Amino acid sequence: MRELDALFTALGRSSFRRKFHLAGRDRDYLERHGLEQVLAHGEQFIATRLAPARPAADGRQTPLAGHPVFVAQHATATCCRNCLRRWHGIARFRPLTPAEIAYVIGVLRHWLEVDRRRCSVSPVDGPLLDGPPAEGPRPDKPPADESRAVKQRQQRLFLAE
């Protein structure tokens, strides 16, 4: 298992991992339910989808969106057992230990906290993002065709990694 500073430095060099950020419904879900409840869901996801020695559909068990933990898993390479092996040094083909599960949850917690702050808005300072604010109203959901194209592009990039 890697030290968090070294891990997040390495993840920051990956163009695939770097592109993940909470947006729309996933960000709203985190704000509505709070970090602790989202991480409790994450513990359940890890226990059922990642902790077994041979998870069902390993490599495809984590959706690209639909819950803040799923986005965080892809951003932190905790989405499948192969990524856990490559990025975190956690061996495959054996169940995760309680310490390894706690490590994964700690990695997810760190990423969710950082990403949450990255897009926070301060009433005094304004957005923490670089660049000018977007003009005009932003729709909560892109048109269906655009959303489908984005998901297909993300899947192609994920499979190419």
Key traits:
161 residues; two-stranded antiparallel ribbon; 8 helices; globular
Tell me what you see in this structure.
With 161 residues, the protein is mainly alpha-helical. It has one domain. It contains eight helices and two strands. The protein has helices spanning 4-12, 15-18, 24-33, 35-50, 68-76, 81-88, 98-118, 144-160; strands at 121-122, 126-127. A two-stranded antiparallel ribbon has the order 1-2. The chain is globular and about 40 Å long. The relative contact order is 0.15.
Entry summary:
With 161 residues, the chain is an all-alpha fold.
Number of helices: 8
Question: Structural class of the secondary elements?
Answer: mainly alpha
- Radius of gyration from CA coordinates: 16 Å
Q: What spatial form do the alpha-carbon principal axes imply? A: globular
Q: How many domains would you count in the coordinates?
A: 1
Percent of residues in helical segments? 55-70%
Which percent band covers the strand fraction?
under 5%
Low-confidence parts lasting 5 or more residues at pLDDT below 50? 122-134
Which whole number gives the mean pLDDT? 85
What summary fits the major beta sheet? 2 strands, antiparallel
How is the topology of this model organized?
Blueprint: H1 4-12, H2 15-18, H3 24-33, H4 35-50, H5 68-76, H6 81-88, H7 98-118, E1 121-122, E2 126-127, H8 144-160
Antiparallel strand pairs: 1-2
